[in-house]
Amino acid sequence: MGLGSTAKKIQKVADIAEDLYKKVNELKTQLEDLRSTVDETNARVDGMEQDLAEQRALIEALAEERGVDTDAVVADVTADADTDAAEAVSE
């Protein structure tokens, strides 16, 4: 085996290594972007959960002021949803 053949093989391995290095860097960038997106989404969800908790408190306060039993209303809605789901499954 001559030196020319060995040099070609080494160059081929170096080219493959360079391509892999580029791909790893691309994946690293994509992962960083994904992490950023996940962090932003988590922040939005946390904000929405806070807003929802505030809205729930306001609705419960208004319901209590008007004499509405919120537990009964929630139970009724849950029962209706369960019934609808059971009917959908049986169809």
TrEMBL record:
* Source organism superkingdom: Archaea
**Is Coiled coil included in the keywords of this UniProt record?**
yes
Q: Does the keyword Coiled coil apply?
A: yes
Please list the coiled coil stretches.
10-65
Q: Which UniProt keywords apply?
A: Coiled coil
Q: Which InterPro entries match?
A: DUF5798
Q: What is this protein called?
A: DUF5798 family protein
